[in-house]
Amino acid sequence: MASERFLPQEVIRRKRDGESLADDEIRDLVTAITEGVATEGQVAAFTMAVLLRGMDARECSTLSLAMRDSGDVLNWERARLRGPVIDKHSSGGVGDCVSLMLAPMLAACGGHVPMISGRGLGHSGGTLDKLCSIPGYCIQPGSARFMQVVETVGCAIIGQSESLAPADGRIYAVRDVTATVESVPLITASILSKKLAAGLDALVMDVKTGNGAFAATPEMARDLADSIVRVASLAGVPAVSVVTDMDQPLAPCAGNALEVFEAIAYLAGKRRDPNLHEVVLALGSELLVLAAMAGDRATACQMLETTLADGSATEHFAAMVAALGGPGDLIDRPDLYLPVAPIQVPVTAKEKGVVSHIDTRALGLTVVALGGGRVRPDDDIDAAVGLSKLVRHGDEVTPGTELGRIHARDDAGAEQAKRSVLAAVTIGPKPVKPLPLIREIRRSAG
Predict the structure, then answer these.
(1) Whether 190 is catalytic
(2) Which pTM was predicted?
(3) Catalytic: which of 68, 119, 170, 175?
(4) pLDDT score of 3 more than 60
(5) Which of 136, 264, 272, 343 is deepest in the core (most CB within 10 A)?
(6) Catalytic residue status for 175
(7) Domains of the chain in sequence order
(8) Would you call 13 a catalytic residue per the annotation?
(9) Torsion of the alpha carbons at 26, 28, 30 and 35, rounded to the nearest 10
(10) Is 348 marked active-site?
């Protein structure tokens, strides 16, 4: 409980004036927000002050821990676990279905992965929306069931409950409508409050950068990557940030059920997109080394590859889906369960050349326009719609070459999507050298 004499406006004023806040002030403010003592206007003023004046690593760590402690914190019985509690988080992008493959791969390596994911908003997709395309899958199973699945299966991907870091939910709702989302300290605290509440031993952060990412510039991506590593370390959780490319969709598809199809094909070995595979291995190997589950990255990559080769990653994914209410034979018969759009039409090139630029954000918004994303948090989404068979930078095309395939609910939506895809893909006369998928790896200086 916040002190009876605590005045939120005094903390807001000090941060507005660029002063460093004391730990007690931050904790009292978070308590006031959680208990409803601080008004919505005061929360908005505080977030704007942080956006404009920033926070140092110590302040941000205190904020993250206070938000964590505003709700339940998972306490694992270590004697019942085979290995460390580890997790991966992404800053969001288009065609980013890495979590669906990496969580069961890490579990097959001996880790326990309590992954708390979010819904998509704007042009980027959300892991939770992808899982909602699986019939029966329970995204909010309650803490006891969540922990039981993580203990027995090794991984569970669910949504944030109201009891987990509730202060984050209240603060984020205000940030979303007051143009204060783009604050690195607030992003850091929002991410880490939930990860710290999950009782992690190690975390890998995938920070996307490029025209389809929130952190559009390398500088902002580096700032966020470093902030996550520093603040997590201060809060007692070792972390590493991997800055990855989002100047084109990561997978060759975008859309909720389409990305689940892609993940199943990847795990089952039917189709393993090289770009997707490179990022999965980069993130997974960094995390295995960080958690002392592997001595070096080469060994870690081999461990991850083995889970694919021997089918153990597939088994963990299937067990997770079944344990959370989904069909037990989803891996074997995805066509029977995942929704499929009634209209599928190709988008073809009109000229000869090389794919020189892709407006990734525009492709994400195309999925939203088809009904596969949301503009407001309470919007319903169509899990079947989206884009598949997308071209990549450097691909050579001729008239009639497929640039992508539209999955739509109606003809009007398909036609609009075709126009959007054509506008988003630039065909040039000369080959281009794409930027590396793994831009940087940011680790703790200590």
Answers:
(1) yes
(2) 0.93
(3) 175
(4) no
(5) 264
(6) yes
(7) 78-161+178-334 (3.40.1030.10), 340-428 (3.90.1170.30)
(8) no
(9) -170
(10) no
